[in-house]
Amino acid sequence: MLPIAGSGPSERADAARNRQKILQAAARIVATRGVECLALDEVAAEAGVGVGTVYRRYADRGALAQGLLDAQEREFQAAFLSGPPPLGPGAPARERIRAFLHAYVDRLETQGKLLMVAETETPRARFVTGAYRLHHNHLVGLITEADPDVDAHFHADALLAPLAAAQYVHQRENGMSAERIKTGFDQLLN
């Protein structure tokens, strides 16, 4: 079984309520003031909980951003693991790789700045999350199916590297459109 984002041990009812308060407060801050204004002490004040409560759950802004992204990550995973083709099973491997990359770009288009916080504000966060490992393993499987003679692990890393949120945000801020980025991936896959 592959890791699913957010899976883990059950939590106490009071801890679950506090987690929801914290995430709702953080989401309000991001929606009204932007990702740049996401600060753990402000989230605590907005949520009506102590700062220590926030820090016990989320050690830094990156971990809090990951918490905010959990539901969207679960939806993304469900789409490529069991959704309709070509993103989900049932299409040829090359088509699934293309669909995965395009769906990832779409996700970056809507969540890029928050993903950037999640990936950059916790040391090595991008590479140690269950989500990244799942994305990597998914691509390794598809690449191996499409071309068993290539180094699938290297190719998966090479395809995921330009999907780093900081890279994507940089490209978009410098005039590259999402469609241009998708076209670039299509050209890499040829």
Give structural notes.
This protein has 190 residues and is mostly helical. The chain has 10 helices and no strands. Residues 16-76 form the HTH tetR-type domain. This is TetR family transcriptional regulator. InterPro entries: Homeodomain-like_sf (IPR009057), HTH-type_TetR-like_transc_reg (IPR050109), HTH_TetR (IPR001647), Tet_transcr_reg_TetR-rel_C_sf (IPR036271).
Write the topology of this structure.
Blueprint: H1 13-33, H2 40-47, H3 51-57, H4 61-82, H5 93-120, H6 125-128, H7 130-146, H8 152-160, H9 165-173, H10 178-189
Number of strands: 0
| Tally of individual helices | 10
Q: Helix share of residues?
A: over 70%
Label the CATH architecture: Orthogonal Bundle
Instruction: Kindly report the CATH topology.
Output: Tetracycline Repressor, domain 2
The pLDDT mean sits at 91
What characterizes the major β-sheet?
Answer: none
Strand residues, percent: under 5%
Structure class: mainly alpha
The separation of the N and C termini measures 31 Å
Helices and strands, in order, run as HHHHHHHHHH
Radius of gyration from CA coordinates: 18 Å
What is the CATH superfamily classification? Tetracycline Repressor, domain 2
What is the CATH first-level class name? Mainly Alpha
| Mass-distribution shape | globular
Provide the domain count: 1
Low-confidence stretches: none
Give the gist of this structure.
This protein is mainly alpha-helical. The protein has 10 helices and no strands.
Keyword list:
Tet_transcr_reg_TetR-rel_C_sf; transcription cis-regulatory region binding; Tetracycline Repressor, domain 2; 190 residues; mainly alpha
